[in-house]
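Write out this protein's structure.
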Amino acid sequence: MDKNTRLRLGRAQQEPVWRRGTTLNHAKLPADTVDWLYDAASLTKRLKQASSGRFQVRILSQVWQRPMRCERQLLGLGDRQFALVRQVYLLCDEQVVVFARTVLPGPLLKSRYRYLARLGGKPLGEVLFRDKSMRRSEVQLTQILPEHEIFSLVMRGSAESSVSLWGRRSLFQLGGQPLLVSEVFVPPLPKLAQMQFRVTRKSGR
């Protein structure tokens, strides 16, 4: 393997930099994506509304593996700890609009929430937002660049490398047990139906 190849592979393993959503200037975010990034309601419900019910979950993978470093840090996992990582596409009218990655730690799947390992094509969002114990952290945002490992996962099978991708992630708690959900939005996005958009704006943002 030559030096240039090693450098390209090294760049491809980079992780995105996540920032608190309230620290970003909303005006600098893509106009067609900003509402999706900050919407605190159920993403599954919004996608079903936007696609008139023509919504689908396509499973890409679900395996036990060591999560990304930034994921382990947020979940409080050790460097050698594994978790169940579920990756799916969310489709509206047969078009991929969201890449979703969920990290499910072992303790969660040993609790009464063990059924989360057997969701199949059922959307996770429907489960999360029905659970009265659910708590959700403040959203974190990031721009997904071609040198990030997750970019190739989102754009699997596509030669496009110039598209601007933005993602969000939230730490959820179910019965006091954490799981991490990251969602990357793939343009063009459908128009939100009956959007009720609420963002806490700070001075200068």
